[in-house]
Write a sequence for this structure.
């Protein structure tokens, strides 16, 4: 069998760093969502780009699937080995290679996590802003084009990855982009690999943009009477041009889950969580302006937190939202939907989604990065109840169709994996075939994370 | 001949809107730089996406080159017909299709120019920020991934194109992206077409991000004793995190050219031109902070202009910089270099370039979007003097090598066309071959602007 031949050929290259131990396979066969255990045939732990290149060459010669793995927190089965093969775990390639403080950029290996990076940067006064809830690897975040609470101000991975080193399916090592802040030098390969979910190549080095830690920051939660009022406040804040660093929506059910999980005392109402960054003066002005907008829409109960500890606690609570919601129904698993629509359609999209969930047999607290028009209903299901699973899948399908009808996208930040494959044709039409053509030209044997994102013949 | 067959087949489709008149051919055979007249075999003026698709199908069937044309202001021979064929002039597809003021986006046809768009937007309080010096078409600007004076604040075309409709070489019509502010739904095809210089497809519709016109704005010029001091002031301003809307460098020779061309009275010294956008309060604070930085570096002669007329006059002067410099040597043509380096290397790159030019037989005033690390030396040459042409080409080659040695790119904003082809291998190595693979997969017959950006077999 070709996978077996590939594994055998890799032993002399990697020694103990290719393993078939059951525990290693199982860890790499799991995700945070409802997919069944799907272990690969082996797990490799490369240390260098040269080793990654060897892995690709050997796997390519033997038609053996390769699944790149960061921390495995992706939510659409991205890093599960549905076709077997070798999972390439980047956790041992996790160094900061170069901090260029003057240029506000950093060169890292892909296995480094975002929290580790920010820890290393602490003394420089700089930080890397993209923050998916999980402490994901930077390579995985590039893989899914991740974003998070700060995207409304600092952008997604697409905006913050300047350059990459990538190992292609045939083992060739290429460099894309540069440390220059802009370029018109040929096709934007950096942008092509960001969001390609390990289907076009393996990222082995990345150059990221950094930002100065703001002189001042202020964050608050505030309650609204109903969801419409909260969403209207968001829309107005954006249209006024207030430079929010973060603006997050949580519905009443999510607030209740926070209370239980994080020992909070939030009203059973929808809330906005907001943060401003800047100088002392500008933050003070922004806080006042936002307070006025919120009040116009019935917002109440503001408490502005300016010291780092309180703000950290606030955002830790938000980042644990997914787990808080899961914990609200013990034993449940989840389908995490991920719509993104134009801001003007946000209120409608959330309202219709809420009504649809209310009329179904499953629960689905809603929260999201509403400053970008992005929200999630976390559909909670008993894994042993096929009727609930079916209801959740149907809800999810209707949500995605709604996003498309409103001019949006079926996934604002989580990506396609296998979970969104069925909606790609509807979202992209013929452009999905073009993605397939590009995949074929870079990975003709379809060994890179096969079965995900694009449809190739089979 | 296949080109002739294609033209004959297009007459029934386009009627009078495909022409071979000498004046039409000549207009489309010229650029603003040193290339000789290179007319196409015919010029087509489509009105609809369906017509563009027909043009592609027919040209693809007959191996006839297609060169997309916006306003022809690109500087590297991008839109010249070096292999003959049909120039597709988008000037009659120039409508604003949809202004989505609430979402701050706009849907336009590619032939619309940036000035026309902003004129149409005036009443909405919104504007489109990307401003190459020329009044270029938005399709051409997407083609070259253009940027300009405001990029330091608002980004390049890469950041401001949200979605595209594209006609591929075989006539297929695809849509990329959406009006959602972010997405993780598959490969970033929008980003791939932006900067592809008409080599992958023709853009027939585009969705662009808009911004609120700032409540307040203030702009000024200020003189420095030497270039190093000016560049240091820029670097420090960036590192302080001051949110400049524009920051431009012009050297003493450029200042002299402005005096002659625009009736100014600038000292024969290097200058910075700077602008801040925001609220009355924030702009006032930024102006003060910048004033302090500039003073620390010996900057003098500030006059802040806050009314729209004075600011418009200031930036019109800057936008005419290329023509002012050309006019400083009557009869001259130019090679417009376009380096971009990490900010920490900017002073070195400019200093070495200036010394290199000073030691040569040609003049080359320097100006640039220094906030991005991007600058141009406009090398002035007598078109009938081969020694000057050679000296300029040698200078340009050394400048590009310098940019690469300093971790930068050979073109910050103008693009590759044919002028930068010889440096693509040096900048990208094997990644340039990957660009070729992508080109082949989307345009297997190599009819889309052949001979530009990528090397395909021939
Ligand atoms: C509680 C929770 C909250 C979350 N919140 C957010 C959120 O707010 N925003 C958001 O965007 N996501 C969120 N996610 C999803 C997840 O964290 C992101 O998708 C993240 O980017 C995945 O990173 P990872 O390191 O875990 O990647 P993995 O899951 O290991 O891999 C993700 C994809 O990238 C590929 N990949 C990994 N490493 C490489 C590499 N070196 N080269 C090429 N491809 C590679 C993989 O093959 C896979 O296709 C959340 C997840 C959880 C569990
Ligand atoms: C005085 C002056 C100052 C300038 N300053 C700047 C500057 O500051 N920044 C900057 O970036 N550039 C600058 N430029 C260069 C030029 O303005 C830009 O390259 C601009 O983007 C070209 O736009 P255009 O409409 O003239 O395109 P064209 O020259 O007509 O075409 C440019 C490229 O795009 C392709 N193209 C055109 N339309 C389409 C379409 N619909 N679909 C697909 N491809 C298409 C063409 O095939 C070609 O490859 C300057 C030029 C001049 C003359």
């Amino acid at each position: 069998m070709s996978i077996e031949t590939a594994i055998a050929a890799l032993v002399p290259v990697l020694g103990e760093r290719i393993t078939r131990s059951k525990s290693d396979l199982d860890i790499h066969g799991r995700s945070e969502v409802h997919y069944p255990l799907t272990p690969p045939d082996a797990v490799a732990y490369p240390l260098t780009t040269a080793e990654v290149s060897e892995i690709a060459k050997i796997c390519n010669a033997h038609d053996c699937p390769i699944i790149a793995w960061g921390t495995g927190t992706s939510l659409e089965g991205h890093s599960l080995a549905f076709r077997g093969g070798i999972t390439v775990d980047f956790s041992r390639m996790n160094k900061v290679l170069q901090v260029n403080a003057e240029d506000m950029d950093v060169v890292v290996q892909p296995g480094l996590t975002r929290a580790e990076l920010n820890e290393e940067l602490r003394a420089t006064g700089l930080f890397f802003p993209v923050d998916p809830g999980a402490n994901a690897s930077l390579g995985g975040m590039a893989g899914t084009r991740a974003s998070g609470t700060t995207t409304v101000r600092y952008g997604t991975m697409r905006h913050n990855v300047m350059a990459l080193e990538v190992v292609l399916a045939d083992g060739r090592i290429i460099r894309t982009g540069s440390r220059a802040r802009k370029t018109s030098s040929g096709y934007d390969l950096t942008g092509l690999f960001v969001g390609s979910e390990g289907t076009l190549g393996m990222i082995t080095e990345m150059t990221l943009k950094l930002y100065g830690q703001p002189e001042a920051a202020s964050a608050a939660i505030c309650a609204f009477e109903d969801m419409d009022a909260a969403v209207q406040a968001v829309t107005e804040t954006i249209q006024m041009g207030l430079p929010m660093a973060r603006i997050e929506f949580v519905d009443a059910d999510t607030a209740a889950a926070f209370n239980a999980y994080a020992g909070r005392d939030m009203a059973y109402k929808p809330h906005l969580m907001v943060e401003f960054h800047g100088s002392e003066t500008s933050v003070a002005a922004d806080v006042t302006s936002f307070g006025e907008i919120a009040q116009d829409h019935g917002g109440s109960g503001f408490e502005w937190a300016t010291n780092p500890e309180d703000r950290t606690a606030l955002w830790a609570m938000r980042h644990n939202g997914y787990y808080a919601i899961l914990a609200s129904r013990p034993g449940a698993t989840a389908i995490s939907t991920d719509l993104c629509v134009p801001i003007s359609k946000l209120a409608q999209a959330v309202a219709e989604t809420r009504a649809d969930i209310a009329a179904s047999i499953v629960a689905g607290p809603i929260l999201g990065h509403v400053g970008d028009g992005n929200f999630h209903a976390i559909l909670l299901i008993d894994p042993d109840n096929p009727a609930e699973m079916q209801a959740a899948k149907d809800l999810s399908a209707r949500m995605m169709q709604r996003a498309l009808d409103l001019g949006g996208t079926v996934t604002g930040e989580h990506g396609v994996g296998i979970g969104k494959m069925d909606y790609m044709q509807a979202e992209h039409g013929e452009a999905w075939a073009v993605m397939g053509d590009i995949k074929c030209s870079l990975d003709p044997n379809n060994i890179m994370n096969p079965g995900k994102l694009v449809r190739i013949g089979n």
